[in-house]
Design a protein that fits this description.
This protein has no helices and 8 strands. The protein is an all-beta fold. A 5-stranded mixed beta sheet has the order 2-8-7-4-5, with no helix packed on it. Strands 1-3-6 form a 3-stranded antiparallel beta sheet, with no helix packed on it. A hairpin with a 2-residue loop joins strand 4 and strand 5. The model has no long low-confidence stretch (mean pLDDT 95).
Length: 82
């Protein structure tokens, strides 16, 4: 399982960073945009990532112990304050 709490698809922000939060099965390996991150004993994870101006693609990949992978993709728009 892979549940993404934030961000929602198509989210628009004026902040240069965004918090990616979600949950997966314990002991799974989580990576966001190919960067491995730690998850809790319960499988929860959160990571703040930097955004470039315009549309950002955030890819969350979960790999189970047995090698099965699940991927979720979110697109976030960063609009710099005028």
């Amino acid at each position: 399982k892979l549940v993404i709490y934030s961000p929602v698809e198509g989210f628009i922000t004026q902040n240069s960073t965004i918090l990616v939060q979600g949950e997966t099965e314990p002991e799974s390996q989580v990576s966001i945009n190919s960067q491995e991150i730690k998850n809790s004993e319960k499988g929860q994870f959160k990571e703040e990532i930097s955004l470039a101006e315009g549309v950002n693609t955030i890819t969350i990949l979960v790999k189970k112990k047995h090698g099965k992978t699940t991927t979720e993709t979110r697109h976030v728009v960063y609009k710099n304050k005028p």
